[in-house]
Amino acid sequence: MRGAGELLSAPGGVDAGVLGYGLAALAHLVLAFVLLTSWRGRLQGALLAAAVCLTVLWAGLAAGLQAGLGPGWVPAEGLLELASRGLWLAFLLRLLSPREGVLGARVRPLAVAGLLSAALLALLLAAPWLGLPAGLGRMQGLDLRLVGFLALAVLGLVAVEQLYRNTAPERRWGIKFLCLGVGGLFAYDFFLYADAVLFQRLDPHLWDARGLVDALAAPLLAVAAARNPQWSLDVFVSRRMVFHGVALTGAGLYLLAMAAAGSYIRYWGGSWGRVFQVAFLAGAGLLLPALLGSGSLRARLRVFLDKHFFSYRYDYREEWLRLTRALAGEGEGERPLPERAVAALGAMVDCAAGALW
């Protein structure tokens, strides 16, 4: 991380850092567009959209610094990170509050601790701009900026735990992916800054990987927003888009795994290693389209996504249009109406045959 001066710099692994933070900025930019165009005026939705927008700015600036942007932007990157994480904490506290505009008793200590930590950390990060002494952020060899970000991560994890624990079991379905997404951000921050406080330096590899972690959180936050219309966010996530996105992601992971296995085979295969590697990769390449074309596998994937990612079993608009076209005989030739009806109903549940009596 470059956001807090010389101690927080990560000179190594620039390419990985640019890629990771660039992907994080892009993923959150798409999410920000969806949230801003669907906001309906409530505070929860505003805080969520603001947190995502600030994450876009922070990740974009972090990618720029990794790519060689001037050191004059270092304090701005640290302040944007603080603002982004601070708004995520504020969003969680808003969800924990029982009434609009009122902080509950269990929320006030977290809010006060968060405000104090953020204010002190902002002062330390802005010290170069304010002309304050260079050693202001250090105490007995300990960098207080690292401690401040670590404290913010701890407060975020406590807020996530409180939100999940104080949500009724029958309603946890709605906040599960929010807790996974935001909890993942704060958990990685805790790991990163605990390591930095312990060794008094930021591990460049951990810092570079952080952008990818933030990018992975964006889809989870999108699902959480779609599951909670009471946040005044009318977000619609296309089932077809999710299905194809998951299928492409799975295919990519499959190819990466096969490439790793092929390298292992080549390394340990001796003089025949190259031959075995090529044969293995060819077989894996033939297996992939067979898996993607499997009707039973696609049906199982649809059921899994419908069960765990959506509040409704079907995309009813799409299903009605498909049923109407099937009953009207579009593309069915001369098949009689009863057969078209059976085929249309079977298509809804990925069934290849049916009977009518």
> How much β-strand is present in the residues?
under 5%
Q: Helical percent range?
A: over 70%
Backbone CA Rg: 25 Å
Instruction: Provide the CATH architecture of the largest domain.
Output: Up-down Bundle
What low-confidence regions span 5 or more consecutive residues with pLDDT below 50?
1-14
Class derived from helix and strand content: mainly alpha
N-to-C series of helices and strands:
HHHHHEEHHHHHHHH
* Total of helices: 13
CATH fold call of the largest domain: Rhopdopsin 7-helix transmembrane proteins
What's the story with the biggest beta sheet?
A: 2 strands, antiparallel
Overall body shape: globular
Q: Class of the largest domain, according to the CATH hierarchy?
A: Mainly Alpha
Number of domains: 3
Total beta-strand segments: 2
Overall mean pLDDT stands at 77
* Cα separation of the termini: 69 Å
Taking strands numbered 1, 2, ... along the chain, how are they ordered across the largest sheet? 1-2
